[in-house]
Fold:
Amino acid sequence: MFRGSIPPLPTPFRRGHIDEEALRGLVERVIQGGSHGLSVGGTTGEPGTQTLEERKRVMEVALEQAAGRVPVIPGTGALRLEETLELTRFAQEAGAQGAMVIVPYYLKPNQEGLYRYFAEVAKAVPDFPILIYNIPGRAGVEIAPRTVARLRRDFPNIVGLKHSSRDLEYLSQLFQEVGEDFLVFCGLESLTLPMMSLGAVGTIAATANWLPKEVARLTELALAGDFRGARELHYHLLEANEAIFWDTNPIPLKTVLSWMGLLEKEWRLPLGPTTPEVEERLRAMARRYRLIGEEA
Structure:
């Protein structure tokens, strides 16, 4: 179903509005770079600062530009269940191949509440693949492996999970609970190879917006069992993976992409520019990976 590198795209803005031309360029860049899919509307895409109509339009533009060449798996989660259902149904109707639904943030629900929340989503789109997005650092709560296993048993369209945490023990416990055929994607860039060595099938890594070919190749090598080759790429990508988090994602990502001429250096509040010190580090990193020239 889904495998390999699925870059989470940032949402380009120009003078406060979605820059559809730049978004199309980002879609084309990752596809031409060999990515195995793409996602919009995840945390890298700043969905919390967008209206529902803007989030829907981002999905439409990405799907139009991808034109069926790779799977598109938009993030459709929101704090309110009703909005999550609306966005997930829209993704299905618009032609997406699946949806990624974040663990509800801020409220810190218990496991029974999480089960019921995802159960409602799964029941609303019974023939549409759903990836649970487990990101405790932003959500403030983690969905337990046993809760994931319960959901999988009850709803066959819950097919996988994006794990954005440094807790590798969680991954082992998860596979024991749900089986090794469950589709797990790494959500922390530098842990792509370690997670794939445990059974993850790919990565949803923001670094692939900078270096799509390299991230895609790493996942291909890991899936083929060539962990020596994958390890070489792991270390090659290490600084770029770390740089994504030198400030809050997607600030470093958008900063470098703006220097590459791919989008405007623009966010929505409360996100804002990084410090001159971080910019200096990012510029040096971008030059080392030849993302920009020495004169930039």
User: Anything to note?
Assistant: The first helix runs from residue 20 to 32. The mean pLDDT is 96. Residues 237 and 276 are 23 Å apart (CA to CA). The first strand starts at residue 4 and ends at 5.
